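From the pipeline queue, job 12 of 40. The input is one protein chain; the requested action is below.

Action: predict structure.
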Amino acid sequence: MLYSSTVPGLHWRGITPPLALSDYKVIAFDMDSTLISIETLDEMADLMGKKTEVAALTEAAMRGDITDYKQSLRDRVALLAGMPESLLDKVYDERVRINPGAETLIAACKAAGLTCLLVTGGFTCFTDRLRQRLGLDDVRANVLEVLDGRLTGKLVPQPWGDICDGEEKRRKLAEVCAQRGVGLDRAIAVGDGANDLPMMRAAGLSVGYRAKSVVRQTVNVVIDEGGLDRLLELILTKNPK
């Protein structure tokens, strides 16, 4: 048997590898702890001396212990009121690190013609730069309100809504699939936390990267060791001749 669920750090169910990347048209990535190695909100809080308090709320939300994700995010952002906007650059420059294998996986997906989407409860101050850096096609993220060079502790409402939560991630994925003229069964969703579950349950292929228990119970593929590109061990990037 070419593939086995006994491969260290890589597990799957509900699929029969090898899959064909050409069968999919869209791939959606979560940002924090998936595409990058950190939780950006926690690192912002660290620069304000509030990481312990904020990180505890983040962890509870990602485990699914907090059911009102939107209010949880509002509460965490409120704790950052007064933060100098310049510290956002410090977080990006000094703490944001692309997770291993992310660039390889994205390159393979783009070469196969997939639309690469970033959907996150994080913020445009980071996603705008990651979009350019990684060549992503589309983004849905939250916008921090800044007044006189400091965070107000609030988010700026957008035409699509006030907060990108799990349901907005699913809705954005469905929107991009519709633009491509395909169903959600032709989409791949990659994430690690509870707020990724709506898009994961909707997508044709769901991938948990170093994921929380609540995610591991749901997804098709779990990557516990190595980089995001381990997904390619289960997928043919080119059609066989």
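Job complete. The chain has nine helices and eleven strands.
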